Amino acid sequence: MRYLISLLLVFTFTGFSDAAYLQNLRGRVNIKKAGSANWERLRAARATLSEGDQVKTARASTVEVYMDDGSKVKLAPLSAFKMSSETKESVSIGLYFGRIRSWVRKFSKRFEVKTPSAVCAVRGTDFVVSADAEGNTKVEVYDGSVLTGDSAGHSALIRAGEFVEIQKGGDVGPPQKNSNPPSNMDSSNGDARALARREIYNEISKEDVLASAQAEIQSAEYQNRKTAIDAFGNRVRMEEYTIRPAADQFKYVVLNTRENRFDFGKILFTFNTALPADLSLATANMISSPGSAAPQWQLIAMNSVMSNTLDKVTEDASGGSMVYNGLSSDPAYQLVFGDYSFYAAGPAEADDNGGLGKWIWTKANYNVATGYVDPADVSYLGGSGLVSSVSGDVFHGVSKNIFNEGTWIQAEDFVLFDDGKILSSGDFGSGLGGGETVDQITDRLNFERVYTSSLFGGRTIDVMFSAKLLKDAGLLRF
Questions:
Q1: Residue 443: partners with Cβ closer than 8 Å, 6 or more residues away
Q2: I want to staple 188 with a disulfide (CB 3.0 to 4.6 A). Which of 77, 214, 222, 332 is the partner?
Q3: End-to-end CA, the chain
Q4: Which residues touch 300 (CB under 8 Å, ≥6 apart)?
Q5: Which H/E stretch holds residue 322?
Q6: Residues contacting 126, CB < 8 A, separation 6+
Q7: Phi and psi based region of residue 169 (left: phi greater than 0; alpha: psi -120 to 50; beta: remaining)
Q8: 202 with 355: CB under 8 angstroms?
Q9: What is the pLDDT of residue 237?
Q10: Bridge-partner residues for 252, per DSSP?
Q11: Please, which residues bridge with residue 73 across strands?
């Protein structure tokens, strides 16, 4: 009797919560509470997970979510999800990217996992859902069954021992026999190429960016560190490096630290085949390649982000190929992207479009070498008729677009020396006359881009990078 009374007192005064909670944290796990614009590192051994909260894991990091009915899910490394809703009757989880394994108790509440391309609804089963960087989904069932549907209204019932794949935009494939054992949730989803693209868009907090840089810079192929003055007289500590996440990729990263702010930029280049030991052999002709023979290495995708850790602009290009210009007098192959899109985001838009941000414009069949795109192949936020203005010159220029929907974006560009002086057309002539080589002059040059937008709440994104590292990597030639 004494034991029973003590037990009742514990339940009475401790309280019993219906809310889900996070436990068994391993590595670095971040949480963004509903209504908050900031990600925070999860440090408690156990933390409540409420409706609208978002969670993401870093490399070699996992976390488990426990429901009040005894069901459990585990988030793999480099994954992110949102607790979309939780009631006494149902649970809905939105998986942005990565992998999540769910052990759902029989006769429990209705349970579903949503990805950008699929919805998986179950009652009592063990299954894994994977969402890759391209928006495709894979569902593997180990016990019970899962009803999976796509955005086009197709559906399939996947039973134990089967898997199904759903492509972005719809089209549920037929269930297939799964000869693989249950996935190891301590490893991340997808190949190195997909992981590298995913990190470009979803790793923007200062803590995450610096943590990745510390790990990546050990294997950097090219590195550059220096301090310079920006166009506004501020001292900037610049760190730049390139790495190869996969055999057919390289990534360029620049970190800017000023007295009161941190900005960064990352660009991921993906080629049609494995890159050579000398990276410049591939980069030299990746935009335009003279002659009537197609280059061996062709850029097929480019993904980039610039951010101040709160706001970001992203560019996502795919379907790249080198297209022959057909000119007998000046034959060349030129880079054309089938799809080139631009996005921008303040904290409120950060998770739109799978982490890309708010869609601003898209160019189809865009010739990067010439800048040409058929007007019929360009689509803008709010439709056609945007107001565009350009001023300045190649060394200091400003361009601004105001879209019919009301959003506006402005980019201001500078080419300047380490001391903050903006380059002029006579500097190369006078420099060479004083005995400096072109290499010596360019090693003192930097590029600076400043973004402002109606989405940024008065903040700016201000990234400065050096001509030297771009030249070393073969991305810049004089």
A1: 466, 467, 468, 471
A2: 77
A3: 88
A4: 270, 271, 272, 318, 319, 320, 321
A5: strand 312-324
A6: 101, 102, 103, 104, 141, 142, 143, 144, 182
A7: left
A8: yes
A9: 96
A10: 242, 267
A11: 65, 102
Identify the bridge partners of residue 303 per DSSP, sorted by sequence position: 268, 316
Contact 154, 170 (CB under 8 A): yes
Does the domain at residues 20-177 carry the CATH identifier 2.60.120.1440?
Answer: yes
Confidence class of residue 294 from pLDDT cuts 50, 70 and 90? very high
State the pLDDT confidence band at 191, using cuts at 50, 70 and 90.
low
pTM confidence score: 0.68
Amino acid residing at 458: G
Residues 101, 127: contact at Cβ < 8 Å?
Answer: yes
Residue of 180 and 349 predicted with greater confidence? 349
Dihedral-angle region of residue 468 (phi above 0 means left; psi in -120 to 50 means alpha; beta otherwise): alpha
- Token look-up 């001391």 returns 419
What φ, ψ does residue 352 adopt, rounded to 5°? -65, 150
Mean predicted lDDT score pLDDT of the chain: 85
The three-state secondary structure class of 472 is: helix
Residues of the chain with CATH 2.60.120.1440: 20-177
Residue with tokens 């620049």, as numbered in its chain: 254
pLDDT digits (tens, 9 = 90+) for 417-454: 999 999 887 776 655 556 667 777 778 889 999 999 99
Torsion of CA 144, 148, 154, 156, to 10 degrees: -20
Cα distances (Å, whole numbers) of residue 218 to 190, 195, 221, 243: 23, 19, 9, 9
Helix (H) or strand (E) holding 212: helix 206-216
Neighbours of 198 (CB within 10 A): 27
3 state SS of 112: strand
How many angstroms separate the Cα of 81 from the Cα of each of 31, 49, 93, 384, 467?
10, 12, 7, 35, 39
How many other CB atoms sit within 10 Å of the CB of residue 45? Answer: 9
CA-angle at 39, arms to 218 and 258, nearest 5°:
55
Residue with tokens 């105001």: 402
- Which H or E run contains 299? strand 299-307
